[in-house]
Amino acid sequence: MSGNGFISRVRRIMNTDERLRTNNPGPFEVLSHQMEDVLGDGGILKEVVQPGEGPPVPRNASVLMHYSAFLEYSDRPFETNTNLKYPRMMKLGRDVTLAGLELGLLTMQKGEFSRFLFQPQYAYGDMGCPPFIPANAVVLYEVQILDFLDSGQVDNFIALSLEEQNAVPVSTLLEVVNTLRSFGNRCFNQSHYENAKNRYKQAIMLLRNREKQSDPEEDRIKTASLPLYLNLSLTELRLGSPHKALKYGKKALEIDSACTKALFRCGQAYLELHEYENAQSCLITAQAKKPFDTDINSLLRKVAICYKDSLDKQKDMCSKMFRDWHGPVKM
Predict the structure, then answer these.
(1) CA distance 166 to 261
(2) Which of 197, 235, 258, 284 is the most exposed place for a label (fewest CB within 10 A)?
(3) Residue 225, C-beta contacts closer than 8 angstroms, at least 6 positions apart
(4) Residue-level pLDDT at 24
(5) 58/315 Cα distance (integer angstroms)
(6) Cβ-based burial of 1 (10 A; exposed 0-12, middle 13-18, buried ≥19)
(7) pLDDT tens across 117-165, in order?
């Protein structure tokens, strides 16, 4: 997504419209003729450049987007995050504070790329934002929705007391947990491991706080907990904390002792801790369940090499100590 060609594009439109050229309209006025009035008062105009899919962005959502903001007659944005491969998620009403942008986002779908013209009352007002934005400025925003999550449901659930949370259907709890896990996965994929860990742990805490009411419900709680422990284990490995990674891997094995991913995570953690026999034991068990898994087999070979190197070093150290203890050989 780029707005660098916007002004030249508008100029081409102007050159093909004799009436508009005669009246000498500005670029924003030219663009406005092909835009939709979102609210009916002319304050927010929208042009869909690339349609999206699915439901529109809900209120109180957290949105992942690329955006660029322009003043009229400027080819360069006064604000943009398109230079970031992984922009941060922005929560409506908290991180997104421009009224027009928040209202515009509510009309968008995942994958959509649209342009918006915001009148001053929906942008920076009659004062502007000196020195970058003059008073009473109309601004253009180009926005692409990469993804969004309905974090409003999470916020509402967490605001409840423990008794109120336990009165909510377990299906609602699991929806909240899945949203938190999706948040964590998004952070993990962007290498924001601390943020990912916090989301996973928050989800685990909500599941632990649930008062079990029946065996089927307890099974659903365990099923939802398993991927969270696996994700926490991997996240701790990324953070360089193999002891914690091992702890969460073992938690996953308590839920499902045959889980190859949990065995693999424990093997990774043991390897980082230089506990090669334990690492081998976990990985051999995993290999028996998935004999052709390339990740398991590759890690098992790595553990075998590290184990052999460790034993060779121990032998060399013992030989050296033995020589030193006996002293030099006399001829």
Answers:
(1) 31
(2) 258
(3) 204, 207, 251, 255
(4) 77
(5) 65
(6) middle
(7) 999 999 999 988 888 899 999 999 999 999 998 888 898 999 999 999 9
AA identity, residue 311 = L
Cα dihedral: 205, 222, 254, 271 (round 10): -70
Q: Collapsing DSSP states into helix, strand and coil, what is residue 210?
A: coil
Strand-strand pairing, 44-50 and 113-118: antiparallel
Q: What are the structure tokens assigned to 316, written together? A: 């060399």
The alpha carbon dihedral of 297, 303, 307, 308 has a sign of positive
Contact call for residues 302 and 267 (beta carbons, < 8 A): no
Q: Are the CB atoms for 233 and 249 separated by under 8 Å?
A: yes
Residue keyed to tokens 């632990």: 208
Amino acid making up residue 314: Q
Does 270 have pLDDT greater than 90? yes
pLDDT in tens, 63-115: 999 999 999 998 899 999 999 888 888 999 889 989 999 999 999 999 999 99
Q: Do 109 and 145 contact (CB within 8 A), yes or no? A: yes
Distance, in Å, from the CA atom of 67 to the CA atom of 105, rounded to the nearest integer, reads 11
Judge contact between 119 and 99, C-beta under 8 A: no
